[in-house]
Specification:
single chain, 296 residues, 2 domains, two-stranded antiparallel ribbon, two-stranded antiparallel sheet, 10 helices, 4 strands, 68% helix, 4% strand
Length: 296
């Protein structure tokens, strides 16, 4: 992941952004909302990971086609008939569009969760919830760390065993199974040893004792407070408009949009600003940095 100024914000500010974004419209089936969410998420992911994220882009086609195909096959509402299935059920334009919109919404949500996973590391999780749910936080952070560590160790052990002639991709099927069981036995033994070492280390450092304090490297600054207020105002207005039914969209029986007025335009603008807030923040900080360098 690239160095990101947005990732240096306080964990509470980051959590507020993703929580309000999800509640304000990341899971709302409305064409403009979906387009803004998808574009904002894609721009932020490219900003965080560069071209490496493009390699994972084809995976987004899976929920897109699944949602569109499943909705067409099982949902036959709508007045615009495109074709007839062998069962006699109709394939309607409204069902197709609704399925594609749902798939695009899922794609946008997946990209936002990808960005959330890149930004919200275990130390940020500990800072945010460590004081309130210490045991649960430790379990979650250790689990999140254990999964990639388990995969990495499996690769290391399998490569070492293949050099000794015990690779699980060589020989007959029974031999491969025996070699694979051997690799897993080594992996489990190593993981158990590390867990015992971690438990002894935690016990020696006083984990579980009453009156223990918590430590984190994050400080809530004025910049965090300003961004929290901006995020809350934008998200609050979008949610208020959704409750009022502004910019409502329906696919059945016909595709209908709510009448566009000043309130709906402001809602679209607020949600768009919320989606592109990380990229705007990054570009603003880059401009400040270049200005400071030019003055030296």
């Amino acid at each position: 992941m690239r160095s990101s100024e947005f990732s240096r914000l306080h964990p509470f500010t980051l959590f507020m952004f993703f929580a309000i974004l999800a509640g304000a419209g990341a899971f709302v089936i409305q064409p403009v909302f979906i387009a803004l969410s998808l574009c904002g998420a894609a721009c932020f992911a490219l900003r965080l990971c560069g071209r490496a994220v493009l390699k994972k882009a084809p995976l987004l086609l899976i929920p897109l086609f699944l949602a569109g195909g499943i909705n067409v096959l099982f949902n036959h509402r709508g007045v615009t008939v495109l074709a007839k299935l062998p069962s006699g059920n109709a394939v309607t334009l409204e069902a197709l569009i609704y399925g594609l919109l749902a798939g695009c919404m899922l794609c946008g949500a997946m990209i936002w969760f990808y960005c959330f996973g890149k930004l919200f590391t275990s130390d940020r999780l500990m800072c945010l919830t460590g004081r309130f749910f210490p045991a649960l936080t430790v379990i979650i952070s250790m689990t999140v760390r254990f999964i990639p560590l388990f995969v990495r160790r499996f690769r290391e052990i399998s490569e070492a065993q293949s050099q000794l002639g015990f690779g699980y991709r060589e020989g007959s099927i029974p031999k491969r199974l025996r070699n694979l069981a051997r690799i897993f036995s080594i992996l489990i033994s190593r993981s158990l040893e590390d867990s015992i070492t971690a438990a002894d280390s935690m016990r020696s450092r006083g984990y579980g004792l009453s009156g223990r304090s918590s430590f984190n490297m994050f400080r809530y600054s004025l910049r965090d407070a300003v961004l929290t207020v901006i995020i809350s105002v934008l998200g609050g207005y979008v949610i208020f408009c959704e409750i009022k039914g502004v910019n409502s969209f329906t696919c059945y029986p016909r595709i209908t949009f709510a009448q566009t007025d000043l309130m709906s335009v402001i809602q679209f603008s607020a949600f768009g600003l919320l989606c592109f807030l990380p990229v705007i923040f990054e570009l603003t900080e880059d401009h400040k940095w270049r200005s400071q360098l030019s003055e030296i």
